[in-house]
Amino acid sequence: MDENFYIKRMQRHTKEAASWVMGNGVQYYKEEGYQAFKKYLRDKWYVSSTFAMTDEHGYLARFDLSGGGMFYDIQCLKRVKKRGSIYEYWIFNARGDDLGEPAHAEFYITKANSVDGEREVLHSSLQFFDSYTVDGVEIKLPLNDLKLLCDMQAWQYPESYKGHEIAHLEVQDSPNGYFIVSDSFFGKVGHMFRNVIGPDRSRYRKLK
Questions:
Q1: ∠ CA 47-50-53 to the nearest 5 degrees?
Q2: 111/144: higher pLDDT
Q3: Does the structure show a pLDDT above 50 at 71?
Q4: pLDDT tens string 160-187
Q5: Cys-Cys crosslink for 168: which of 37, 79, 185, 207, Cβ 3.0 to 4.6 Å?
Q6: pLDDT at 182
Q7: Is 149 helix (H, G, I), strand (E, B) or coil?
Q8: HEC profile of 111-142
Q9: Residue 2 DSSP one-character state
Q10: For 63-76, what is the mean pLDDT?
Q11: 134 vs 18, 37, 110, 130, 140, CA distance in Å?
């Protein structure tokens, strides 16, 4: 078997591990702790993780994975509690720089009985959508939230945001608590904002 076979297998393992993290990672991490979480990923899929966060540092949930030259940044962007269920919007930012794999994002809507419960995937897409309605519940991302846009890093994955206004909008945080907003396509440097783009900023009004 050649090297390419092993690389492809590791890429498959990393993708499977990413799906498990979204479906079961929050529960496992909270119950068993981070060291056990890392060991489980390594023993089952031969992938590694350098951080995991749930309900801390401003994140609902965020994990990273790497294996076979692939890297995944896994985040829960939105959580809606309705009728005894938990609905969430998840994003995978994936890249394989050393393998020539195109960077891309994956988008998911999940449902669980509790925050710490197992998640069922209700919808998935390789193209961005800002809202989705299921079971009469709308899960909508607040695209005037600069921290959210900074975390999503849409400008790094423009093929996954085709036709959407945030595809080239670059949002970076700064040490003084502000966000620097610019357009990566035209190279136009924007202004510094605090947290949310307000209606008085006409250039970014469409993001409300």
A1: 115
A2: 111
A3: yes
A4: 999 998 998 888 887 777 888 888 765 5
A5: 185
A6: 84
A7: helix
A8: EECCCCCCCEEEEEECCCCCEEEECCEEEECC
A9: -
A10: 93
A11: 23, 31, 10, 14, 11
Q: Hey, CA dihedral for 139, 193, 156, 29, is it positive or negative?
A: negative
Greatest mean pLDDT among 69-73, 99-103, 178-182 lies in 69-73
Q: What gap in Å lies between CA 109 and CA 131, rounded to an integer? A: 10
- Token pair, residue 56, equals 């801390």
Q: State the residue for tokens 């800002």.
A: 130
3-8: long-range contacts, CB 8 A cutoff, minimum separation 24: 6/68, 7/68, 7/69, 7/99, 8/68
Residue written as token pair 């591990």: 17
Instruction: Please work out, in degrees rounded to the nearest 5, the angle formed at the alpha carbon of residue 124 by the alpha carbons of 4 and 197.
Output: 110
To the question of pTM greater than 0.85 for the whole model, the response is yes
